[in-house]
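Encode chain A's predicted structure.
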Amino acid sequence: KSLKGFGVDNLPDAIIAAGAIFHYLNENQHQKLGHISSISRIEEERYVWLDRFTIRNLELITSSNENAITLADILDKTLTPMGGRLMKRWMVLPLKDQKPIEERLDVVEYLVANEQISFELGKHLREIGDLERLISKVAVGKVNPREVMHLRRTLLQIPLIQKIVSDGAPASLQKMMEQVHSCESLIKLIGETLVDEPAGQIGKGMVIRQGCHNELDELREISFKGKDYLENLQNSEAKRTGIPSLKISFNNVFGYYIEVRNTHKDKVPEDWIRKQTLVNAERYITEELKEYESKILGAEEKMLVIELQLFQELVVGMADYIHPIQYNALIVARLDCLFSFSTIAQANNYKRPEINNGFILDIKNGRHPVIEKRLAHGEEYIANDIFLDNETQQMIMITGPNMSGKSAILRQTALIILMAQMGSFVPADSAKIGLVDKVFTRVGASDNISSGESTFMVEMNETASILNNISARSLILLDEIGRGTSTYDGISIAWAIAEYLHENPKAKCKTLFATHYHELNEMQKQFSRIHNFNVSVKEMGEKVLFLRKLVAGGSAHSFGI
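Encoded structure for chain A:
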């Protein structure tokens, strides 16, 4: 066996890591791994580069504050487990090719415009179980009857979803749904084998459908109708012998027996065999009763063996459908993510972004998708415009006091771009986005005691990582660079970094630079593509009112805040 067919043969470190995972699962979890049929690499050339600092600082998936709302909390309105997992993958791997982004946006726009279709789609998605987990349980032979029937019910929803997609749907959506495997023969096989509501475990209730196996049906007849048989036998023997008080009972010593009071023991037939004499009665057995006893006592054990065999045969047969069902799970997950995007677009008044291959970023009335959802009822988010390009306004230098909203503007710009390149509508009146290939952030102040790194050292390492990896399509967010050291050293460092980004011959990357250092406002006079902005505030006597509005021009002071 070779890994050459998977395109990973030249990635030895990745192969070692994957092998370690397989070894761990095999040795410690005792897992069968037959359902893992391929290995693939994350194709970096297809996705926006987000380093771990950016993913952390933008709070895409998690936050250091356990009570915080993340972007995932806003975007993830998926209805299936595999949709939720794929959504998180999409969030950390936004696309950087225009065509697949536009295809996603087309589907979202279609669902937003067709409320009835969207409603029907949501109704069916809610009925879909975790296909990925269910089929992996089939592969390792650890699936139970109830889960198999749940898998069938899930597969039944897929053709219904296909019918919803009409001729007016975008070509990308129609193509997606055409690739779904119907699994009709599997649906039929499960339906013919299992009852509609099987027990969770063999031997704990009905599992195999009546008519599936003749011997099993006969054994059930014996087991389920045992009481009727004994009652009929008791009545017929009482009539035959003339002993009306005769009764058939059971104990663990004799099994089934016929009990006759002493007043009628002279009427006992010769073919009855006496087993026990009591004070007021005698107990007998008959050949017919012993024969029935052996049948009924062995029936349940035989039923268990046959049901287990039939169920195992069903699971083995299902193994042929592992790959089609895994692919169906991926299609459903994609559709679920796009449905989620349409849901939040309608709920939050998001607009379709315009994606192009240029270098201009032009956002009109952009909003922070998380902060606007945390506002008090009736309070309106103050939207802001952002314009960046590589020729005239490469860097915006933002000044203003703490709490004025500088960091929110930085983050919302990055989030709008990432949402657009995921294929989502965005919180803005309009957004023209030249494709971004890397997003870097340097925000917050923290140390790394375990590695012996001070706050300043951590800040400089993260900044160096940014400066060494920039490209012409990069977006850089720098928040309070240089505050980990003395004021004048900090100003010098911040100035040098801004100058480096402006003068870099390799790439004129778009940059938002938030700072307390008002001295940096002087850079606009020396560097043509640096423009000063401030988040406006209003002085009302001894009070300061934060207006949250980004306006042209540098701020004169920070009010000591």
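Residues 215-302 form a domain with the MutS, DNA mismatch repair protein; Chain A, domain 3 fold (CATH 1.10.1420.10).
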